[in-house]
Amino acid sequence: MKRILVFLLMLGFSASAQVAVNTDGTSPDPSAMLDVKSTSRGMLVPRMTTAQRTAIATPAAGLLVFDNTTQSFWFYSAGSWVELTDQGSLQWVPNGSNISYSAGNVGVGDASPASTLTVGNGDKFQVSGTQGDVTFTDDEATIQFPATTNPNSPMISMFSSGTQNADRMVISHSPNYSKWGIEYCDTSDVIYFRNSIARIAGINLYGLFGLKDAAENPEATFHVKGQTYNRTAIFGTPIGGDYYNTNVAIGNNEGNAILYIGKDLGDYAELRWNFSETPSTGYLGIQTVGSEAISLQESGGRVGVGTTLPQSRLEVYTDNNNFTQLGLDNTIGNYIFQNQQPANGANQSALFVSRDRSSSSPGTGYHNFLTNAALKTYSNWGDPYSFAITAHSWNDFGRSGSVFGADNAGSYFGVLAYKNSSNTNYGGYFTNSTNGAGKSFQAKTNIGIGVWGELFGADIHGEVYGLYTEGGDYALYADGTTFQNGPQVHLQPNGTDQQTVLYANVSTDMTVQTSGFAEMNAGKATITFDESFRNSVSPDFPVVVTVTPVGVSQGIYLTETNTTGFSVAEAGEAKSNFRFAYIAIGKRAGYENPVVPSEVTRSDYATKLSRGLHNDTDTTSEGEGLYYENGKLTVGKHPSTIPDRSKTVNETRNPVRGQ
Going along 215-350, which residue ranges are E strands? Predict the structure, then answer.
């Protein structure tokens, strides 16, 4: 009972049947039948599923429920349920014929819109402003800028005309001036470019483009059709004074055709098509007045200079003794022929290549793209038996070869595949044993390989092995003193895959030696040296003999030695018979007091060679040079080897022009 009384006190009923629900005892607002007030709680409306909501019989307009299925508020209006979404969507409110809403369609100026958006009942849509107007009507869409009376004010319009059966987009200054535009024609499926008078260009659905008379019916990818008494195309001043019928025709049915380029009929060049039923004799010629200079053959795409019947892709023809054929066939790409005539003397060649320069223009390295050359070739693949350059010669006579290189005067040269004056064949023959101008007679500066070299016969370096030679009688013959700063090693076959290593004896004297075994007879023996030892040992110095008994003895001693042999006896005058071994060493005849060059024995000799003999594959440093003069080896460049920097361009000669 107490709870009911308290609740009744909180309701605060008024005499007019208004109801206030609150905790502060205030009266309901005069405009409200129910005034609910709280700062900490809300108000719940009836909650139900969609099925329960739609099952309500004869719902009153404005009935409000919360749908648990859609989780949204719904109210009943105009005979149907309307959802209030959480985005707060609102419906169009019909307002006569100004703005209307019907089943999802909105009308502006249309009370019954038939499309999603209908403006002006389908006959007009216009946007107006100070910067210009946009208007759509039945047959035209116009974008027009304000000052239409000004010729410089442009206008763009798009319209469709049933009478012309075409759609157009027109660009003009104003309606009072000529129009330029694009027109699509339904009947011919052609898009035209036109002015106010005529169609001047067109492109059809096949992608064919036509100009002037060919605009409405182009017959080729690009078709230009002239009109009577008008030129189709003019490049420069027309040849001749006739204004009419000057045209450019490419590919007609007249057979021969000529295109003239020039000043007048007495000074011009022409492009001539010489038609022939036989393709090999038909050609396209480029020539000046009366001269058939260049021709392009009809069949095969061949080009001829000086001939109308080229036999290769490009043929430059002088006469039967001199011609060049480029792109000859699948085996030989290019062919240059010259039949030298003895009457023309020396200095004849089928191909001459010359390089000159106006000032110093060095390359930057040894790479193919870093070098300068009079003739440069390059092979991308080093397949077997493939080379950047090959040269072959019969070499019938002496002093002939396949590849020759020399200085301008031929004072030093190198030849590959060379037959010398004694008809001996060389794979490579090199000589530079000459004394150039400015050199002293003693100075030896050049290094040769093959035959002669002023300072060294050969300069050979190997990172692993220095030199390998073999021969029938000997592998290596040195006509002179040999020097080495390492041991001399011999390899002795022993029947296995690894030979026995033997080291040669060394001595501070130039000596020869022999050895052997002999027999003591009654305590005595005399030995005669072999002939080779007797002929090699010096008679001016005693021979050193060492004897060693083999077996039991009283000991033996030398009783006499000379260059022919020695005698021994058993100690204590014993009379034993036993075997003994001996070694004899003597001075080598002719080398009793050997003299070696002090330059070679110096401790810095190898260092000098290393500084002077440079490995030129190393492009980061330069060789210092070596020369031998007045009995002394010097590291440096001899003055005679330094290029003459005062040499002028006029000293070079072009043998073709004689200058």
Answer: 222-225, 257-264, 267-274, 283-288, 291-297, 303-305, 314-319, 322-326, 334-338
Domain boundaries, position 18: 2-84
Domain count, the chain: 2
Contact 612, 641 (CB under 8 A): no
Residue 169 covered by a domain: no
Given 84, 111, 141, the domain boundary residue is 84
| Residue ranges in 502-649 assigned as alpha helix (H) | 531-536, 598-601, 605-612
d(CA 539, CA 526): 19
Domain boundary among 51, 84, 117: 84
pLDDT tens track for 68-96 = 998 988 899 888 888 876 544 445 555 55
| Bridge partner list, 408 | none
Q: Do the beta carbons of residue 571 and residue 555 sit within 8 Å?
A: yes
- Whether residue 525 lies inside any domain: the answer is yes
Task: Please provide the average confidence, as pLDDT, over all residues in the chain.
Answer: 76
pTM equals: 0.42
Beta strands 222-225; 209-212: pairing state: parallel
CA atoms within 13 A on the CB side of 406: 15
For 564-599, how does the pLDDT look when each residue is reduced to its tens digit (9 = 90+)? Answer: 999 999 999 999 999 999 999 999 999 888 888 888
Domain membership of residue 474 (yes or no) is: no
Give the CATH number for residue 530. Answer: 2.60.40.2080
Q: Supply the Cα-derived Rg of the chain in whole angstroms.
A: 58
